[in-house]
Each structure stands twice: as C-alpha cells, then as structure tokens.
Amino acid sequence: VVSRSKYHINVEVNFERLSNQGITAASAFIFSWGLVLSKHAATNDVLFDCINTGRDIPVDNITDMIGMCIHSVPIRMTLDKSSNLLQCLKQCQAKYGQTVHHSTIGLREI
After folding, report:
1. If the chain, 110 residues long, is cut into consecutive pieces of 10 residues, what is the mean pLDDT of each piece?
2. Cβ(77)–Cβ(45) below 8 Å
3. Which pLDDT does position 1 carry in this prediction?
4. Which listed site, 32, 71, 77, 85, has its alpha carbon 20 to 30 Å from 51?
5. Which has the closest alpha carbon to 55: 45, 46, 41, 65?
6. Torsion angle, alpha carbons of 6, 78, 26, 57, to 10
C-alpha cells in the first residue's frame, strides 16, 4: 500500500509474502532505495552504494574484532517499466547477489 503526499511516501511491505516468492528483506530495501533515487533523479538508471557490515570477510576471528569493518558494494539498477514489481525485485536481488561476491576485493586488486 502506497500513499503519497508532497514531501513523503509511506509504504507497507508484506515481508512474509515476499519471502514466499524468494525475495529477501534486504533485496526489498535495496530495491526501495533504488526506486526512491530513480524517482528523485527522474531516471530509470541509478547507481548507488550498499553498505555491508564486513563481518563476513574471510579473516580469522573477524566476529570478535572491535570497530568498524564496513565496506560498500555498488548497485546499479535499471528499472524496466514493462516489468511487474516481482520481476523488478527478482532482478534487483540477482544483481545484488552478483556484486556481493566482489565485496571483499581490495582496491589494490581492482
């Protein structure tokens, strides 16, 4: 359910229903942010960073470290107006899944 006013958009998301379709909550949030950026920039092609905790990198005892281990992964979304919402969400989730594999590559290696 979406309601619009001049300054904000309220959205209700049924995560159980999305989960039944194979869509994660993270993918729904990423897609939502991409949609906001798309509307704000008046374009169907947006690029933004998704910040991750960094606690999943292959370093011994990373979960016991104190301090930030965050890293960001670029996400590019191209919204296809001929696709329905579920197709867009699945595409967003697939693209995010592809970028996560590269999230631990250091700048020296790029």
Report:
1. 56 79 88 89 90 73 78 85 87 83 68
2. yes
3. 47
4. 85
5. 65
6. -130
C-alpha 34/C-alpha 36 separation (Å) is 5
Which pLDDT score, from 0 to 100, does residue 8 have?
63
Q: What is the DSSP string of 75-92?
A: EEEE--TTS-HHHHHHHH
The residue count for the chain = 110
Residue owning tokens 């969400």: 89
Q: Tokens 């942010």 — which residue?
A: 33
Q: What residue type is 3 in one-letter code?
A: S
Compute the Cα dihedral for 44, 46, 51, 54 and give only its sign: positive
Q: Are 78 and 44 in contact (CB under 8 A)?
A: yes
Q: Residue 90 burial by CB count (10 A; 0-12/13-18/19+): exposed, middle or buried?
A: middle
Residue with tokens 């281990």: 69
